[in-house]
Every structure is written in structure tokens, then in C-alpha cells.
Protein: Kinesin motor domain-containing protein
Organism: Emiliania huxleyi
Amino acid sequence: MGETSISVVARFRPARPGASVDGDVRFGDDGLSVETAASSHTFDGVLPPHASQEETYAQVSPIVEAVLQGYNGTVLAYGQTGSGKTHSVTGTARDPGILQRAVRHIFEWIRSDAGAATHRLTCSYLEIYKENVRDLLEPSDASLSVRESGKRGVFVDGLSQAQVLRCLETGGSSRRVGATQMNAQSSRSHALLTLTLERKGADGSVRVSRLNVADLAGSEKVSRTGAAGEPSRGEGRGAAGRELAPLVRNHSELAGEKAHVPYRNSKLTRILQESLGGNSKTLLLVACSPEESDASETHSTLLFASRAKTIQTVAVVNTIL
């Protein structure tokens, strides 16, 4: 047990056909640094536009390995709309993303460990939209409550669990999306998928660990999305931004080592409280655009990532004797 810093990886998507590439963006040969006209940054990994989904998962796999050893793990995908967050998280049938690769990784480990223990892997999938928490596996308009107990910590009351493959298929199709000028299938909400792995050893001890993967709503200003022209859609993008703002503030206050962090200010930060300063090994994947028109948003995203690197968490193996 001991304090560890949040890992930060920046991934740049390829430029769109015909778009002007920002010539001031330069990548270091070490795979750890990136420079823009405004600043330079060093992270735990920097993936240039030609990086593959496999290379992206290689950055994430240590978090999954930690979950297999009994730690809690979290992957947060952050960035402006259209920067490649959802592609990195879910990918495609031919080129799967973090979620599918993590599930495959876990099942392969279970098969190799099957002789020594029994395992149970379950999944939950929720969405946060306008401060309402919705179950993506049993979709309805009902907003679920966020509660806390000594045994379970912070949890969502009434959230259903399912087998993993059904979870991935059902949850993704239930998420709220809306077209904007930045992305024809823009997600207007935060989505959080949680895999819970229970391992019962031959000695009767039980190890319970969780992998959280959060695909966060776009971090850009509402005026850039073009969603403001339609009242409901503009409100949605604004609401997503307001939900994300406490997360940015929490990162700054944790980095500044202030005594109190207002996790309760937002459902997102409340649910991710352990991931942002508690019992979890956490990786922040910031998705960036290499295009000239997105230079200001890319700069803001990289500054956010640099602040996040200073956050400390204390992860422990979750074993019940």
C-alpha cells in the first residue's frame, strides 16, 4: 500500500480529410512528450495520430492487471467532442476498443487461474445526464439515487447487473446522443461501465475488485458545438459541461492539496470519489485533436491532464478473509 500518482496518457486522433493540421504540435521521440505553440507537456504516454487501438490498450493494460491482482482500477476518457474518446473506449467490431480488450484480458486470466479459484464477473452500465443517473441496462426515465454505506462505499441504489457481453451490447445502444457541428453522433452524457470481479480462493478468502471505465461528455465550450440553436440540445450540452466542471475543479483542488474536496457537488465526482483520490489505481486518457481549428481546446485538455498528474491515490488489495 502507498500513494501513487494518477497515470496520464494523451492520444491524438488523425486529422479529418481536408482539415488544416496544427503545425505547432510536435511529438517527442520518447513517446512521453508533446509540444504545442502554447506549452509543452510530459505524460506517462503520448500516442500520435498513427497510434493503433492495440497501442492504446497497451497503455491501459497495467490498470487491468492491477484489477486482476485485487486492486480497484479506473480509466477516465476526457476531451472535446469528436476527439476520439468513444472510439478509444468502444472501438468497432473489427478494431475493438478498451472495453472489449479489457474483457478479453480478464477472461483469458480467469481461464489461466481456473484451477486454483472460482470467479464471478458482473457488469453495470450507467449514464449521467443533467445530474440524473440512468441505468443503461434497464433503460427508463427514472433517476437513480447515489448512496453511501460502510460496506459498499459510494454506490448507485437500484443499478442492475448483467453478464458482461450483454452489458456491452445493451448499454452502448441506450446512451443519449445528439448531432452537433463537431460530431454527428456526439454523446451528450457521461457513461460509466463497471466490471466487478470476485475471486474465491481455495482457502475461502474472497477478493473483490472493480474496473471502472468512464467515457465522459465533451469538455469543450457549448458555443463550439453548435448545439445551442435547438433548446433541448443546447441545454443538454450545457448540462454536460456543468457536470464536468466539478471534475476539473476537483482535480485542481486535489493537486493543490486542499483539505476538502467537494465530491458531493456533482453526481459524477460523487460516484468516482474513490477513483479521484481514494482506493483505486487510475489512468486518465485525454483525447486530443491535431487540427488547427481545435488548438485552443487541445491546449485546455493538455493543461487539465498536467494538473491531473499531481493527484495521489492510495490503492489496496480488497481481500475478505
Q: What stands out?
A: The chain has eight helices and 18 strands.
